[in-house]
TrEMBL record:
<keyword id="KW-0328">Glycosyltransferase</keyword>
<feature type="transmembrane region" description="Helical">
    <location>
        <begin position="180"/>
        <end position="206"/>
    </location>
</feature>
<dbReference type="GO" id="GO:0005789">
    <property type="term" value="C:endoplasmic reticulum membrane"/>
</dbReference>
<dbReference type="Pfam" id="PF03155">
    <property type="entry name" value="Alg6_Alg8"/>
</dbReference>
<keyword id="KW-0812">Transmembrane</keyword>
<feature type="transmembrane region" description="Helical">
    <location>
        <begin position="327"/>
        <end position="347"/>
    </location>
</feature>
<dbReference type="GO" id="GO:0042283">
    <property type="term" value="F:dolichyl pyrophosphate Glc1Man9GlcNAc2 alpha-1,3-glucosyltransferase activity"/>
</dbReference>
<keyword id="KW-0256">Endoplasmic reticulum</keyword>
<feature type="transmembrane region" description="Helical">
    <location>
        <begin position="420"/>
        <end position="441"/>
    </location>
</feature>
<feature type="transmembrane region" description="Helical">
    <location>
        <begin position="479"/>
        <end position="500"/>
    </location>
</feature>
<protein>
    <recommendedName>
        <fullName>Alpha-1,3-glucosyltransferase</fullName>
        <ecNumber>2.4.1.-</ecNumber>
    </recommendedName>
</protein>
<keyword id="KW-1133">Transmembrane helix</keyword>
<dbReference type="InterPro" id="IPR004856">
    <property type="entry name" value="Glyco_trans_ALG6/ALG8"/>
</dbReference>
<feature type="transmembrane region" description="Helical">
    <location>
        <begin position="133"/>
        <end position="150"/>
    </location>
</feature>
<keyword id="KW-0472">Membrane</keyword>
<feature type="transmembrane region" description="Helical">
    <location>
        <begin position="353"/>
        <end position="372"/>
    </location>
</feature>
<feature type="transmembrane region" description="Helical">
    <location>
        <begin position="453"/>
        <end position="473"/>
    </location>
</feature>
Length: 523
């Protein structure tokens, strides 16, 4: 049981540390083991109803079938892992299989990176292969720190899923529009979080594929609309959706599937506050609560003990500021995405404009979304890597977002033995990112200004305080949430700043008529 203060200084913030085995695997490891067992043993009609474990199946059907396919290989490693009742089962053979399955699935990610690199033009050709944009891009993607720790230390299949996304991006850049649309439609039915970037795909395909020509001034030629192209895109979406959701529609279980995919009762924030606008909002609410209690403006007996600092995955009420509803976050996200979509339509820049809109959609959804997971920041960092090798301005934004976003993932690895690993891997990737991009744009002005540099440097003392100093103080018994709160709030400032800076860059960018009429190559 956690030690509770007047507003729950408790261990809900430390829920990630509630691993019954102490070390060796994460919560997500058990999540996917349970899904293997569910899909292997139970009929389709029970997949989205089974609730023996608290980690119920809450991914779309294609991912469930992916787990089903893996389960038929898993049974040769250790059939006991496929028993639904074997909660928290983690034999050596099970761990080996789970790790190998992630590595094998990453082959799609490697291929997708290769295809993205093929889209890079030779404007910045260098004699040294280490300074070539294609090499830098390959390293930034393949050795991405966040993806590495989330998939191969923490445990998930994000590499496989991002492989589908990057491959769809590459196909759109290569003007293979139907392939790109098919890949993205399939991706949505593997993991629905990618719906965040669906507006970018929809508008880009409509502008570039459904309308086939522009006027001389760069404006859209409405008469070029192709009913055939719209029909083909519609068929792809309908066929993929029918293949995925059709069986559950026939069984009359579609509402149950939807309720699992969109569990709004889980609350505004995840167990660990994602570093977004709502982290700042929650922190402000807590600061006002403390101030109100000290000034006797608030009645301490009326403040709920299970508050946001507990990090519980449930609905809650703010104390001072207005409580946030799912509808409010949806409206905020929609408003935040809208300008980027307008730019994609009225200021078309081909694939580069599409990527800018994709990143802004991902960031807007991360900043204002409901129950956002901290790992969702990778949805913006990875595609921004593709822009970072093109312009110094984008490279600077990438360095801020990647450094801050990756640092915000540190709490996923919380044991003492993992501390040197995450610090070393973070340093290696960050040093390479800064040095390679600085070398690529050495003839231009510095990538970061002095204020941005100071902000990023302050991550070092923040980590020292959270990992070394704070555990030695008596505060850790009364306020165990403080390190996570500081990490979340400080990183939220950097991520929000990067989002605003990228938006300002896109909105103020001037597009010539030539750029509007001639669809440029990717990079």
């Amino acid at each position: 049981a956690s030690l509770r203060t007047g507003w729950d200084g408790g261990g809900g913030w430390c829920r990630a540390a509630a691993n019954p085995r102490g070390v060796g695997y994460s919560t997500d490891f058990e999540v996917h083991r349970n899904w293997l067992a569910i899909t292997h043993n139970l009929p389709l009609s029970q997949w989205y109803y089974e609730a023996t474990s608290e980690w119920t199946l809450d991914y779309p059907p294609f991912f469930a079938w992916f787990e089903y396919a893996l389960s038929h290989i898993a049974k040769y490693f250790d059939p006991q892992m496929l028993v639904v009742e074997n909660l928290n089962y983690a034999s050596h053979a099970t761990i080996l299989f789970q790790r190998l399955s992630v590595i094998f699935a990453d082959t799609l990610f490697i291929y997708a990176v290769h295809e993205c690199c093929r889209c890079v033009n030779g404007k910045r050709a260098a004699k040294d292969i280490l300074e070539k944009p294609t090499f830098i891009l390959a390293v930034l993607l393949l050795w991405n720190f966040g993806l590495l720790i989330v998939d191969h230390i923490h445990f998930q299949y994000n590499g496989f899923l991002f492989g589908l996304m990057l491959l769809s991006v590459a196909r759109l850049c290569q003007k293979r529009y139907l392939e790109g649309a098919l890949l993205f439609a399939v991706l949505l039915h593997f993991k629905h979080i990618y719906i965040y970037v669906a507006p970018a795909y929809g508008i880009y395909l409509l502008r570039s594929y459904c309308f086939t020509a522009n006027n001389a001034d760069g404006s859209l030629k409405w008469r070029s609309f192709s009913f055939l192209h719209v029909t083909l895109l519609g068929l792809i979406v309908c066929l993929v959706s029918a293949l995925s959701l059709g069986p559950f529609l026939v069984l009359g279980q579609l509402p149950q599937v939807i309720s699992r995919l969109f569990p709004f009762k889980r609350g505004l924030c995840h167990a660990y506050w994602a570093p977004n606008f709502w982290a700042l909002y929650n922190a402000l609410d807590k600061a006002l609560t403390i101030l109100g209690l000290k000034c006797n403006f608030l009645d301490g007996t009326k403040i709920p003990k299970a508050s946001m600092t507990g990090g519980l995955v449930q609905e809650f009420q703010h104390t001072v500021l207005p409580s946030v509803t799912p509808l409010a976050t949806l409206i905020c996200t929609f408003i935040a995405i809208l300008p980027s979509v307008f730019c994609l339509w009225f200021k078309p820049q081909g694939p580069r404009g599409f990527l800018q809109c994709l990143v802004l959609c991902a960031l807007s959804s991360f900043v204002f979304g409901w129950h956002v997971h901290e790992k969702a920041i990778l949805l913006a960092i990875l595609p921004l890597s593709l822009l970072s090798i093109q312009r110094a301005k984008d490279a600077g934004i990438y360095l801020i977002l990647a450094t801050t976003g990756h640092f915000s993932l540190f709490p996923l690895l919380f044991t003492a033995s993992e501390l040197p690993i995450k610090i070393l891997l973070m340093l290696l990737f960050t040093v390479y990112s800064f040095s390679s991009l600085k070398s690529l744009f050495r003839r231009e002005k510095p990538l970061l200004n002095w204020l941005e540099t100071i902000y990023l440097i302050q991550l070092v003392p923040l980590e020292i305080f959270c990992e070394i100093i704070f555990p030695l103080t008596p505060w850790k018994w009364h306020f165990p949430f403080v390190p996570l709160l500081l990490t979340s709030v400080y990183c939220a400032l950097g991520i929000t700043y990067a989002w605003l800076k990228l938006y300002l860059s896109v909105l103020t960018e001037r597009i010539s008529v030539r750029q509007k009429t001639k669809c440029p190559q990717f990079l």
